[in-house]
Amino acid sequence: MFKTYKHAELSPAVFGEPYTRHWQFIELELHHPWFYVELVRDYGDDVVGSMLMIPTVPILQQMLSELDEHSWFAQAHLMSPGHMRGETHWVMEPLEEVSVAEDASGTIEGYIYKVVSGSCYSVNYSPLRDNLRVREIIFSAKRDLRVPE
After folding, report:
1. Which long-range contacts (CB under 8 A, 24 or more apart) does 92-97 make?
2. Residue 80 lies in a domain
3. Helix segments in the chain, DSSP class H
4. 28 lies in some domain
5. Which residues contact 27 (CB under 8 A, 6 or more apart)?
6. Residue 22 resides in a domain
7. What is the pLDDT of residues 22-42, one digit of tens each?
8. At residue 108, does pLDDT exceed 60?
9. Which residues span the domain enclosing 67?
10. Quick one: CA torsion of 48, 38, 23, 90, rounded to 10 degrees?
11. Which of 27, 87, 98, 137 has its CA 20 to 30 A from that of 122?
12. Is residue 138 classed as helix, strand or coil in its secondary structure?
């Protein structure tokens, strides 16, 4: 999850939106993958895109279920910490797929993150890693992304 601080909160009067809150910055304490996604909303007379920072796969899945003909994802990126790739720095890559992986016995081993370059990452290190199979595709760029009209 992302962490916010009271001293970083901006006054609602700055933006003229009394029911939303704005922060100068947020913090991510865990070095865990997260998603940077463009949400597009069609208001009829205007189409507006904004960027979402989604901290977990279950929240991404929930947000996908709430999309409709007036709101959709136009682009999605995986923000991955270095330890997932054997490096030291964070990287943002276009996301192709997020899936649930299981071993031959049906035991869930975790999430597989596939990026457009073809690389696949996971935070789980199963000894049977080469024998994992996809149990469920949670996000697919081909299925879940739409270019704004």
Report:
1. 92/36, 93/117, 93/119, 94/141, 95/35, 95/139, 95/141, 96/140, 96/141, 97/137, 97/139, 97/140, 97/141
2. yes
3. 12-15, 57-66, 141-144
4. no
5. 2, 3, 4, 5
6. no
7. 888 888 888 899 999 999 999
8. yes
9. 33-144
10. -160
11. 27
12. strand
